[in-house]
Amino acid sequence: MKRIFSILALTLLVTAASAQTFSVFYTFNFKNGDAPNGGLILDSAGNFYGTTQFGGSSNRGIIFELSPTGQETILYTFTGSTDGGIPIGRLIRDSAGNLYGITSLGGDPTCSCGTVFQLTTTGTLKTLHAFLGGTDGSQNQGQAELGLVMIKGNLYGSASFGGITSCDGGLGCGVLFKVTLAGVETVLYRFTGQADGGFPQDLINDAAGNIYGASGGSYMAGNGGTIFKLDTSGNLSTLYTFPEGAEGTSPRWRLLRTGNGVFYGVTQFGGNTTSCVIGTVGCGVAFSVNAQGKEQVLHTFGEQAGDGAEPSAGLFLADGNGYATTFYGGTVNSTCPFGCGVVARESTKGKYSVIYSFTGADDGFNPAGPLAEDSSGNIYGATTSGGSSGDGVIYKITP
After folding, report:
1. SS3 29
2. pLDDT value, residue 304
3. 398 DSSP β-pair partners
4. Distance CA 196, CA 228 (A)
5. Mean of per-residue pLDDT scores for the chain
6. C-alpha angle with apex 337: 335 to 338, nearest 5 degrees?
7. Res 7 pLDDT > 50
8. What pLDDT, on the 0 to 100 scale, is given for residue 45?
């Protein structure tokens, strides 16, 4: 990376980077969850909330709470029926303490295409919407994690499939949707898989209520995904198209956006397509795209020994520095033939460094999902695998 957050840093107090310490904060053992999603959220008391894709009594995932000392409370266990199952991403929490999220299966008994849910403070789960497939939209396990945003009391999100049924062999190329707390869904946009891209990722919004996100690809040559804007009138515009190759292919996960309209993010593929450990698809890049639609590649993953490969979450800003996680790269061993994944940091002075390489043992491997930060500046993330029981861990990096 080269000055990955140089523009963001103009509005931040830059702190000197110091040695950081890695530790395992919590280990899952299947009964209490398996394959945690990253993107923990915190309440004012310092409790964490998150989801696992699997585990629990029905092996369809759980919603959990972790105390500041790492004690788990299971708030809900999914059954995979009308309540949904295999949650795929970060939660959001309203001012009353209710939690909202997305599952990738269950809901409608015919489609089993996933749900949008609410978990109340009393532990009652409400299915606000069950995706129906077809023109409505459909979630799919194994896709990059998604999440919701709340604007004026309504939930907005994306579904990886569904929409225009002639796209992607009948599966559809994804939709953007709105769901009210009363459970009324409106499809706001259906992707065509052409110039507008397809397979939308996690969303962000600005103060005016405009929505931004990335599409993960398309069926047009030279279109490796887009950055888009959906305005408050429901009009979608393409702000940037990734040309594939060295500039990156398939932007994923949540974007960062500055007040002057600069986007920061990662692509899952592209970049180094010659010597990447995961093959000729490339190991991904970190990028910025300015308000004029010009991209700068800030770091190409997988070009150096021990570097990360295939980013597994959006970029995260803490202590004035940028952080990234990769699913592969780093330590290569019999557990991880393509590497166990890394956590990397880019200082505001443009220095890139791997701050932790997972080993595939009790520390876990294959980190995935967004990072989170507590009030003391500690950073938390999740690995989907490994740990003493093999079901993934929540890890902590202290400043």
Report:
1. coil
2. 82
3. 21
4. 8
5. 91
6. 125
7. no
8. 95
Measured between alpha carbons, how far is 139 from 154 in angstroms, rounded to an integer? 19
Looking at this protein, which amino acid is placed at residue 285?
V
Tell me the pLDDT tens digit for each residue of 262-295: 999 999 999 988 888 787 899 999 999 999 999 9
Residue labelled with tokens 């956590």: 343
The two structure tokens encoding residue 383? 């690995």
- How far is residue 324 from each of residues 144, 175, 317, measured CA to CA in Å? 15, 27, 9
Q: Position 206: which residue type? A: D
Query: How many residues are there in the chain?
Result: 399
Of residues 230, 232, 202, the one with CA closest to residue 214: 202
Q: What are the tens digits of pLDDT across the range 137-146?
A: 999 776 657 8
Nearest to 75 by CA among 138, 119, 41: 119
Supply the DSSP symbol for 145: P
Closest of 317, 374, 367 to residue 69, by C-alpha: 374
When mean pLDDT is compared across 9-18, 48-57, 174-183, the lowest value belongs to: 9-18
Cα of first residue to Cα of last residue in the chain, in angstroms, is 21
Burial letters for 280-293: b for 16+ Cβ neighbours within 10 Å, e otherwise?
eebbbbbbbbeeee
Collect all residues with Cβ–Cβ distance below 8 Å to 377 and sequence separation of at least 6: 318, 319, 398, 399
pLDDT band with cut points at 50, 70 and 90 for residue 191: very high
DSSP 54: E
DSSP 64-104: EEE-TT--EEEEEE--SSTT-EEE-B--EE-TTS-EEEEEE
Alpha-carbon distance 392 to 35, whole Å?
Answer: 5
Radius of gyration of the chain (CA): 20
Q: 280: which 2 tokens?
A: 């000729």
What does the alpha-carbon distance between residue 293 and residue 382 come to, in Å, rounded to a whole number? 33
**Residue 32 and residue 394: Cα distance in Å, rounded?**
13
